[in-house]
Amino acid sequence: MPTEVRHISISIDRDWRAVYDYACLPQHFPEWASGLGSGLRRDAQGWIVAAPEGEARVRFTPRNDHGVLDHWVTLPSGQTVYIPLRVIGNGDGAEVTLSLIRQPQMSDANFARDVEWVLRDLRRLKALLER
Q1: What is the maximal distance between C-alpha atoms in the chain?
Q2: From first to last of its 131 residues, what are the pLDDT tens digits of the chain?
Q3: Is the model's pTM score more than 0.90?
Q4: Alpha carbon separation from 41 to 3, 7, 36, 83 (Å, rounded)
Q5: Cα dist. 48→19, 24, 56, 127 in Å?
Q6: Which residues contact residue 19 at a Cβ distance below 8 angstroms, ignoring those fewer than 6 apart?
Q7: Under 8 Å CB-to-CB from 6, ≥6 apart: which residues?
Q8: Residue 98 neighbours by CB under 8 Å, 6+ apart
C-alpha cells in the first residue's frame, strides 16, 4: 500500500539549466540543504554526512540532461531513504520539487516538521540562486 507523499515546490527566477548546474553538485548541498545533515564530505566510497544517528552514506544521481537530482541516504541502521528531487523549466525560470515520502512509523508531527524543513531549504536555494 502506498505511503503518504508531499510534493514541495518552489519557483526560482533563473533558467532551469543554471539551477540544475548549481544544485547537481554535491559540494553545494551544504549551502542550501540543511535537511541532508551536516559535514558532507567525500571518501573513497562516495559521500558521507553527519546525521543525528551517526554517519550516513549519500548516493547522488549522476549528472544528467533531465533535471533529476534524486539521492539516497543510507542511515547507520542500514535503512535507506530515497529522496526524489527535480528541476524543471517553468517559463524563463525553474521549478524545484522535492517529493517527501513519509517514512514508516513517522508521526504526523515529525512529517509536518520535515515538510517545513524542506520548504526552508528550498527557500534557501531560491535565495542563493536569485542573488
Answers
A1: 43
A2: 889 999 999 999 999 999 999 999 999 998 999 877 678 899 888 899 988 788 999 999 999 999 999 999 999 999 999 999 999 999 999 999 999 999 988 999 999 999 999 999 999 999 999 99
A3: yes
A4: 31, 28, 12, 19
A5: 24, 16, 6, 26
A6: 12, 87, 94, 96, 125, 129
A7: 99, 100, 102, 111, 115
A8: 7, 8, 9, 83, 84, 85, 118, 122
State the cell numbers at 5. 507523499
Query: Which residue has 513517522 as its cell numbers?
Result: 106
Is residue 95 within 8 A of residue 9, CB to CB? The reply is: yes
Radius of gyration of the chain (CA): 15
